[in-house]
Design a protein that fits this description.
single chain; alpha/beta; Spore Coat Polysaccharide Biosynthesis Protein SpsA, Chain A; 2 domains; seven-stranded mixed β-sheet; 17% strand; globular
Length: 326
């Protein structure tokens, strides 16, 4: 069955290659669908330069850009800062919620820009009504009772200005579980759970934590995986995450794919980007290791809300004393 699909993804300069690989492989496997791509960015929180927008526009058909308006998210600031304690580097993740405002008559997907598409989008990805996503899982496959929002399918009855306003002005955090994350995933987990929406097949969001270090292609084929998701450290720079330090077949799959979808000249530019980004991350890592660690004692009998407020103020004070951004 052919579908009209609009795909949302939040993209910045540092994620441009990730988005390009995701979009290119998505289109390769889904020529029977009419797919439009909508990139969401923000000049400060998720900057995407004129040059990089022009490069993506020239290489991907049916692509448009949407600038998120931070004013629309003021209703979330209290949750973001006082409950989720979202670090500034993750603030832009909330902009994927722009997909909920779309009144497009076809299907709407939101996809993280750190995935490779390995197969076709089939009917089981598109519930006739409601919200759908893939349940977060342990490496063993055990479900965790909340969603990983890397892949979301949003039916027409869960989109539009009223639904968007309802989500971005949500304030009830009484059921917040820190394990659900600190940005859009945490927020949406307060509203949607597998128990009240559509838990989509796992094969649409298989992460690098779910596959063995070696022999992953046979594993992904056995699962009929559609999206392979590079959670954690991204493959377009050296990994400094101890969970991903071995690399293995996951990074080899990325390396082969990015070399295949880029021209030789583009691939050379990508390798230079990989080198420069890896160098900057390594230097930042060394600086962090040399910075005295802030240790805050357990809260003991302090109320949780008061403890979080005290912890935030102490951290901000120490960061100011060190001359680092708050």
């Amino acid at each position: 069955m052919s579908r009209r699909i609009r795909v949302y993804s939040v993209v910045s300069d540092s994620f441009r290659y990730g988005f390009f690989v995701m979009a290119k492989t998505l289109l390769e496997h889904n020529g029977h669908h009419d797919i439009a791509l909508r990139v969401v960015y923000h000049p400060e929180l998720s900057p995407l330069s004129d040059d990089n927008r022009a490069w993506l526009q020239a290489r991907l058909p049916n692509l448009e850009f949407h600038v998120a308006d931070l004013e629309n998210y003021r209703g979330l600031f209290k949750l973001r800062d006082e409950v989720f304690e979202t670090p500034r580097r993750l603030w832009a993740a909330f902009f994927i919620l722009e997909a909920f405002a779309d009144d497009f008559e076809g299907d709407v997907l939101s996809l993280d820009s750190d995935m490779i598409c390995l197969g076709p989008l089939e009917d089981d990805l598109f519930p006739a009504s409601g919200f759908g996503a893939i349940e977060a899982r342990l490496g063993s496959g055990e479900g965790l009772g909340y969603y990983n929002t890397g892949v979301m399918s949003i039916a027409r009855d869960r989109r539009g200005r009223a639904e968007y306003d309802r989500i971005v002005n949500h304030t009830d955090a009484s059921s917040y579980d820190p394990n659900t994350g600190r940005a859009d995933q945490a927020l949406l987990s307060l509203i949607y759970r597998p128990s009240n929406s559509h838990a989509l097949p796992w094969r649409y969001n298989v992460t690098r934590r779910h596959v063995p270090r070696w022999g992953i292609e046979a594993d992904l084929e056995a699962r009929r995986a559609v999206f392979f998701h590079f959670v954690g450290a991204k493959p377009w720079h050296a990994s400094l995450d101890k969970r991903d330090v071995h690399g293995g077949d996951a990074e080899a799959l990325w390396d082969r794919t990015v070399e295949r979808v880029l021209t030789p000249q583009e691939y050379k530019a990508y390798l230079e980007f990989w080198r420069d980004t890896s160098r900057d991350l390594a230097r930042e890592h060394v600086r962090d290791r040399l910075t005295p660690r802030l240790r805050i004692p357990p809260r003991k009998n302090l109320p949780a809300k008061l403890f979080r407020a005290v912890k935030r103020r102490i951290r901000r004070l120490v960061l100011r004393m060190l001359g680092r951004p708050v």
